[in-house]
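REVIEWER CHECKLIST
Item 1: Sequence provided? yes
Item 2: Single chain? yes
Item 3: Sequence as submitted:
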Amino acid sequence: MNFETLIYQQHDHYVEIRFNRPHRLNAVVEQFYIELISALKQAQADNDARAILLIGEGRAFCVGADMKEHGAGERSLFERRQYLQLGNDVCETIFELNKPVVAAVKGYALGAGAEIACSCDFVLMEESAKIGFPEVSIGTCVGGGVTQFLPRLVGLAKARELIFLGDKIDGNQAAQIGLITKVVADDQLSAEAETFITRLAEKAPTSMQLVKKLLNQSTYNDLDTQLQLELDGVFTCTTTKDWQEGVDAFAQKRTPKFKGC
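Item 4: Structure as written out by the authors:
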């Protein structure tokens, strides 16, 4: 599938989706949302893709909504609602995808860009990059599930501070409060992201799929339910060839080579 606002690249066992509106610092428009959902679904359907990397072309990850397009005021109320729904759909798709998604953040991840990052399983961020939620400061509201994701990551008190005040924080600050997975030097983001996602892609796909779902559901389930789901997950893994490969590799003191079956 060809995209205008994205660059879709297949690598060895992972897919890279590069936001490709660098002239607008990858600000989101309706087409971007529609194409991103399609790209994510394409990656999910690719049996060889075990993980997905989201990264921005140019100087930023994503600065949020394209205010130039918003300022034109050409959308009807119905079209405005559809556009906002697409933003939610993107974050929900990332969260519910059965493969781990990694965001590599440089420059800025603001508004919708920060929402996309928060919905990912892992976030790598440059030291000098900035992430923030300016919505309240400009008279609008956060979306994309941030009011659920952010408190789970940083706690309710810090989530309130970040959303109400709208301050932008850098990579080191984001790492200190648990908002991101790892902070990296500014000139090392691409290399670190490749190393990180390559390590993910070496893991057993069925195991990653089950664990992602278990972690995402953990907040809503009681302990008994979660224990039963974990038991079911372990049993499911034992029915796969990858489970036997893992056992054999451990016994033979070698690195397992998983095939996703």
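Item 5: Key structural point noted by reviewer: The chain has two domains: 6-201, 205-251.
Item 6: Recommendation: ____
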